[in-house]
Design goal:
Length: about 500
């Protein structure tokens, strides 16, 4: 894998970005019904990048109509499981073929380094379609040994059917891979989809939709409606023609989605925020751990739901680990995502920069100490002076009364705390409304398993951090969500189970 796009793929990416982007409804591209458009901004410069169609509720209705029609009468429901799987495998092939182009589109739109977009966003998308491409032929039901009254002889079996039309709403931090987390299992199980990307970062999803069509996905099976969350996302969540809504985003908006979905009691799955504890035990190697702790928070500019944003270090190694984390933070190259030297790009938007900056200020007001960072990086190239950059930041002298410790910042801001008693540590780790993930570093197997069992989190990493795989379930405890993405568990989120009773008497 290279991280530098070839000349052809770079041209393709820039030509794609500059295009007049429409809404994908029923296999054709349309402008918004009222002609409305949204500006998409380059986060590295603050300048306009392109414009997107701003869908209206009427456009959403049309997309839902197209998805319903495809569910009932397109070639999609008639495809054999192997043929359906083959379409997903063909999507994986095409995404891989266009990896450099897609990575550059993602980097231009979101700000992240091209190398990260290539390895993580594109790489994950390929793996997801490959993994779920194998599932359609394995969605087996059961034969169940029932004991009906009256001595009847009965055959009882279950089948897993598509839930129907799925509304998928995704965020801007990993745009194409978050869309694929939903799209790949939804398609593998035979559903049709109305997908709404985040308004800040719709471009890679629009290109992915083109590749899906090229791979043989019939018209109407995937519909993409770009636009505002408060209009398009809200209409999808409440829509009576949608059978299930799959949402990834903030806990605040997740609550709105869940409430809106009660109208027709559509199924809901929610992947929400996090404030993950990253725990260091006294026997851990300070240098190795410091690197992991820094990567755990600064990866993707800290805009990762699983960011290890609360660092708890045992008092015996706290000073050594903190010194090394701070050194690492200072060494990170911050710059535009398209510069191969860049390790941390800009935040996604001016709004996100304001939010993160306000959190740092609030931390300082509440008594935290800025060990490093906290401001704009010096020495940015001229054209990046108005980009949404912030330095990797470490706050010390923090405690659980502070907003920076309690709330999700969703930026490159680490709060560090000392601990000495393991029970107190576990209660602090769990002292959060969130429960998405946790990490811990130790060679003490007993402590590792005890803490892993005691932490309320959907994922626990021991001596590693931020690993995910399409085969492994992912999701949150508490206010981090409902349901699971990936693994065989996600198949239940996209299917209804039918129990069939046949009287054999
Ligand atoms: P967000 O909640 O602001 O937006 C997410 C999506 O919801 C966007 O497409 C947005 O347009 C749409 N939306 C906005 N208002 C809506 C409404 N009223 N009804 C329906 N949809 C609406 O989140 P964000 O700022 O894009 O993303 C950051 C958040 O996402 C963080 O909290 C992060 O932790 C979370 N996240 C979670 C996971 C996970 O797997 N748990 C993964 C990535 C991001």
């Amino acid at each position: 894998m290279t991280s530098t796009p070839t000349a052809t793929s770079a041209t393709d990416a820039r030509q794609f970005v500059a295009r007049e982007h429409g809404l994908l409804i029923g296999g054709a591209w349309h402008p918004a019904s009222d002609g409305g458009r949204l500006e998409s901004v380059d986060p590295a410069t603050g300048r306009p990048l392109t414009t997107l169609a701003a869908a209206t509720p009427v456009d959403v209705d049309r997309a839902v109509g197209a998805a319903r029609q495809a569910l009932e009468s397109s070639p999609w429901p008639a495809l054999s499981p192997l043929d359906r799987g083959q379409v997903l495998l063909a999507i994986a092939e095409l995404v891989e073929e266009h990896a450099d182009e897609l990575a550059l589109i993602e980097s231009l739109d979101n700000g992240k380094p091209v190398s990260v977009a290539r390895a993580v966003d594109v790489g994950t998308t390929v793996k997801l379609f490959r993994y779920f491409g194998g599932w359609p032929s394995k969605l087996e039901g059961s034969t169940i040994p029932v004991s009906p009254r009256g001595g009847l002889r009965v055959l009882n079996y279950t089948v897993h059917e598509p839930v129907g039309v799925v509304g998928a709403i995704v965020p801007w931090n990993f745009p194409m891979s978050m869309a694929s987390w939903k799209l790949a299992p939804a398609l593998a199980t035979g559903n049709t989809v109305v997908l709404k990307p985040a308004e800040e970062t719709s471009l890679s999803t629009l290109r992915l939709a083109e590749l899906c069509a090229e791979a043989g996905l019939p018209p109407g099976v995937l519909n993409v409606v770009t636009g505002l969350g408060s209009v398009v996302g809200a209409h999808i969540s409440a829509h009576p023609g949608i059978d299930k809504v799959a949402f990834t985003g903030s806990t605040e908006v997740g609550r709105l989605v869940a409430r809106a979905a009660t109208g027709n009691l559509k199924k809901v799955s929610l992947e929400l925020g996090g404030k993950s504890p990253h725990i260091v035990l006294p026997d851990a190697d300070p240098v190795q751990v410091a690197r992991a702790a820094a990567d755990g928070i600064f990866f993707n500019q800290g805009q990762t739901c699983t960011a290890g944003s609360r660092l708890y270090v045992h008092e015996h190694v706290y000073d050594d680990v903190l010194a090394a984390v701070v050194d690492h933070a200072r060494s990170l190259v911050v710059g535009p995502g398209q510069d191969p030297a860049t390790e941390m790009g800009p935040l996604v938007s001016a709004r996100q920069l304001d939010t993160v900056t306000a959190y740092v200020e609030s931390g300082v007001e509440q008594g935290a100490v800025v060990a490093t960072g906290g401001g704009r990086p010096a020495c940015l190239p001229g054209e990046n002076q108005h980009g949404y950059f912030i330095q990797p930041t470490v706050l010390t002298a923090t405690d659980h009364s502070m907003k920076v410790v309690r709330e999700e910042i969703f930026g490159p801001v680490l709060v560090a705390m000392r601990w000495k008693d393991v029970d107190d540590l576990v209660s602090k780790a769990n002292d959060s409304p969130y429960g998405l993930s946790a990490g811990l570093w130790t060679n003490d197997l007993t402590q590792a398993h005890r803490i892993a069992a005691a932490v309320k989190a959907g994922t626990v990493w021991v001596n590693c951090y931020n690993l995910t795989d399409p085969a492994s379930p992912f999701g949150g405890y508490k206010e981090s969500g409902w349901g699971r993405e990936m693994g065989r568990q996600v198949l239940e989120e996209y299917t209804e189970t039918k129990s069939v009773w046949v009287n054999l008497t």
